[in-house]
Amino acid sequence: MSEGTGPARVALVGAHGFGEIHRRNLARLAGLGRARLVAVAEPAPFAPGELAADVHVHADLDALLAAERDLDVVIVSTPLHTHLELAERVLASGADLYLEKPPVTSLAQFERLSAAAAAAGRLVQVGFQSLGSHAVPWLRSALADGAFGDVRAVTAAGVWSRSHGYFTRSRWAGRRTLDGIDVVDGVATNAFAHAVITAMTVAGAQDPGVVDWIDVDLHRANPVESDDTTVVRLRRPAPQPDVTCALTLCGPDNEAEPFVTIHGSEATATFSYVIDEVRIVDAHGGDRVERFGRTDLLENLLDAREHGAELLCALGDTEGYMAVLEAIRTAAEPHPIPERFVESVGWGADERIVIPGVAEAIARACAAEATFTELGLPWAVDGRDGAEPAGAAFAVGEDAGRDAVAVLRTGEALAASLSPRPYLHPVRTRAGAVLTDAFPLDHPWHLGAGVAMPSVRVDGPAANLWGGPDYRPSAGGYRWGRTHGRIRILAGENAPGTVRERLEWLGADGSPLVHESRTWTWEAIDGDTWRLGLRFELHAAGGPVTLDSPGSLGRPDAGYGGFFWRFAPSADVDVRTRDAQGESAVNGVRAPWLLWTSVLDGARRSVLFGAPSEADDPWFVRVAEYPGVGSALAWDAPLRIGPGAPVTRTLAVVVSDRELTVGDARLLTASAS
C-alpha cells in the first residue's frame, strides 16, 4: 500500500537521549533515500551544527503539529509516562506512529491507545528492536517444527550493572510513580524489557489469552522505588512452554550479554539477542552457532506504508508484554535488599551496588523456573513478611518461637519439570546451620528432604515424580520429556511435634497413581541434637503400580528414589556405615544406619540416617558429584504396589551440631527403635 513517492517525511519527538540513536538511524535512511527528518520537538537546546539546517525545531509536540504539514511518520522517544497523550495526538494528526518501548504504563492505557489507533486507521510500530532480529522467526519456526524436541521452558537471563548516575539521570528514573502518575521504570520494564518480550515472542506467549497466570518477584538493592532485581514468570497450559525471566542491574560488571534460552528435550538453543546469535547444543553433543541479520523497525514501518509489509512489532503484538507490565505495576512495592547482602563499588555518580553471587542466582532461577524468594536466597527473604510459602514450621524444645529447625513446603507453585511435590527446606541444626539445599544449579529438581520417585507406572508410559530428565536405556541415557507428574497434599493435620498428611501421586495427565499417608515427627534429644521421623505408606490408586529407578532400569549404582536428602554445600565429608566408609564403599550398601559428617556453615556437623525397619533398602550416596543421601526403594529391581498390598517405610534422621561418632550412631539408632 503506497503512501506516496519520495522519502518519508519524519518528525522526532524527544531528540536527545535515546533520540540521538533515532537521529543516527534517520541519517542512514536518508542516505538510502527512504526517509528525511524534517522536524523535532525538543525543549533542550542543540549544539551548533548538531542538526541539519533544514530540520525545524519546536519546543513541544503541539507546536510541531501546528507548524508541520503532511508528516508521514512521527517517532515518539520520550519518557514512558508521557507516551499515551503524545501518541494519541500523533494518531489524530493522521501520521503513522513509531512509539518507543514499552508503549504505555498500564493495560487501561494500552486499550485506550489501541482504540485510538483503530479509529485513526494508522500504523503503530513499537520500538522493541530485538523483534527485528531474523533469529526470532527462525527460532519460532524451529520450535513449532519440533527441531528442539519437547520444549519444557523458555527463559531469559540478564545480568548488567548500573551506576548511581543511571538511577539519577532524570526525575522519572528509578520511579514507580511520579507526581501521582504511573512511571513503572524497572529492570523488566526498561533495561531488560527486550529480554522479556523476546522470550515471550519466541515462546508464542504474546497473547495474554494463552497465559494462565503471571507472577513477579520484585527486589531492589539501590535506594530507588523501582525494582532492579526481578523474576517474571508466566505459567501456560500444557503443552505450551512456560516463560521465566530472571534479571538484575546489580551484577559484578556490564560485560555479560543477555540471552533467551529454549530448553528442549533434543536440543537447547541460546539466543544472544543483542548480537543476533544462536548457539544450539543437541542431546548428542553437537554444538553449533547460527548468525542472523536484523531488520530495522523504522525501516519495517516504512515498508509497511509503502508495500504492505507486516509490522514486526505492531501495537497488538505487545499486549502480552503489557500484561507483564501491569503485573509489575500492581504488585507490592519491591522488597528492599538489606545492606549487609550488597557491596558498593566505585564512588560518586559511578558508584554501583553489586549483589554478590547474583549471576549464579539468575542461572538458578532460570534452571528451576523459580523466583528468588522460592530459591530461599538470604537477600530475597530476609526481613520479608510471608516470604516462607505456606506450610508447617518444625520447632523443638526451647527453639519454639525462634527459627524453625525445618519448614514443610507444599511445592504447589513449582515448575512442571521439577515434578511439584511437598518437601522440607531449609532443615537446620539447633544452632541454625542450614543442612539442606533446594533448586541447586547442578540438579534444580533436588528439593531439600522429602519423598520422590523417578518412575511410577500403572499402564502405559511411566510418570516422573522425581523431576529432571528421564533415564531411558533405549536412548542411551537421560532425556527430557513431558512425563512429569506431581504429588499434592489432599489433607493435613498438625499436632505438637507431628504433621499427618494424605497425599495423591498424579501422572503427567493428572490421573491418580498412588494414594499416600505420610507422617512427620520431630523432637529434641539434647541442646545440640534433634530427631526427625518420617513414615509413609503407599497404596495403589487403582491397578498394580510399578516403581522404578535408573538402577532397576539398568544404570549401575544409581537406584535412587524414595526418601532423599539433598545437602547444602558441604566440605570435608566423611560418610560411613557400621562396616564401610567413603562414597564408593557405602553407595548401595544395606546397613542399619548411615552417618554423614561434614563442614556445614563453618563447623563440623553430623546427620545420622536410620534405615527403615520394614525393608532392607540400600543407601544411595553421592559426595563428589553433589552431596546427597537417600534410602532406595527400587535399587536394582522394580518395587510393586499391589491392590491391598501397600508399601510402608519408617525412617529416622538425627541432626546434630556435634561431630557424632560411631558409638553415638549406635546409641541414637537404638534409642529411636
Arithmetic mean pLDDT: 95
Question: Would you identify the regions where 5 or more consecutive residues have pLDDT less than 50?
Answer: none
- CATH top level label of the largest domain: Mainly Beta
Q: How would a textbook summarize the main sheet?
A: 9 strands, mixed
- Percent strand equals 25-35%
CATH architecture classification of the largest domain: Sandwich
Overall morphology: elongated
InterPro entries: DUF6807, Gfo/Idh/MocA-like_OxRdtase_N, Gfo/Idh/MocA_oxidrdct_glycsds, NAD(P)-bd_dom_sf
Domain Gfo/Idh/MocA-like oxidoreductase N-terminal: 9-128
GO molecular function, one term: nucleotide binding
Protein name: DUF6807 family protein
Structural commentary:
The mean pLDDT is 95. This protein folds into 3 domains: 8-130, Rossmann fold, CATH 3.40.50.720; 132-292 and 318-366, Dihydrodipicolinate Reductase, domain 2; 388-672, Immunoglobulin-like (Sandwich). The strands form 8 sheets. The chain has a 9-stranded mixed beta sheet, with helices on both faces. The protein has an 8-stranded antiparallel beta sheet with strand order 27-28-29-30-39-35-34-33. It is of the alpha+beta class and 673 residues long. The protein is elongated, with a radius of gyration of 29 Å. Helices cover 20% and strands 33% of the residues.
Provide a short characterization of the protein structure.
This protein has 15 helices and 39 strands.
